[in-house]
Amino acid sequence: MALPIDSDAPAADLARFDDEWTKTAVSSDEMYSDIPDGSYDAIIEDARVSETTSTGRPVVIWKLRIQGSQAANRVVTKNRVITENTLGYLREDLEKCRLQVSRLSELPARLGELVDRPVGLEKRTKDGKTNFYFRWTANRTSHNGLGDDVPF
After folding, report:
1. Cα-based torsion angle of the residue sequence 39, 128, 95, 140 in order, rounded to the nearest 10 degrees
2. Residue 76: CB partners within 8 Å, gap ≥ 6?
3. pLDDT digits 0-9 by tens, 83-109
4. CATH no. for residue 110?
5. Which residue pairs, CB below 8 angstroms and at least 24 apart, start in 122-125?
6. What is the pTM (predicted TM-score) of this model?
7. Is 28 within a domain?
8. Is 3 part of a structural domain of the chain?
């Protein structure tokens, strides 16, 4: 949606930037190049519940800052639209982020707990579509109560 234009408002004077404008270089493509498919360590910078603009469905939006040498400090976004069909995937996402909620209605108030939490991340591209998936951590405890030291 375009912003209304006030034709009576004075235009901003940009002349003071002219000298610097001629000296300013365009950033290299490497800074904005696509992040290669693969596994990454990341930090959750933000997590919130919002609504999709097209359908109004609830969606969880994570902002994740990549750590390590490859793609370091790049920020990516992971979205999970919430429907009856995606509840299992959302529960898995939250468990991989080490957040458990007893009722989904608690989620908006609890997502702040994820900020600054490290998480494993995998980027996969298939048929031109990119997806980010949370990875299970190495120190995950299985559902039978036994730790990682079980050899099978």
Report:
1. -30
2. 35, 42, 63, 64, 66, 121, 123, 132
3. 999 999 999 999 999 999 999 999 999
4. 2.40.50
5. 122/38, 122/39, 122/40, 123/35, 123/36, 123/37, 123/38, 123/40, 123/76, 124/37, 125/37
6. 0.71
7. no
8. no
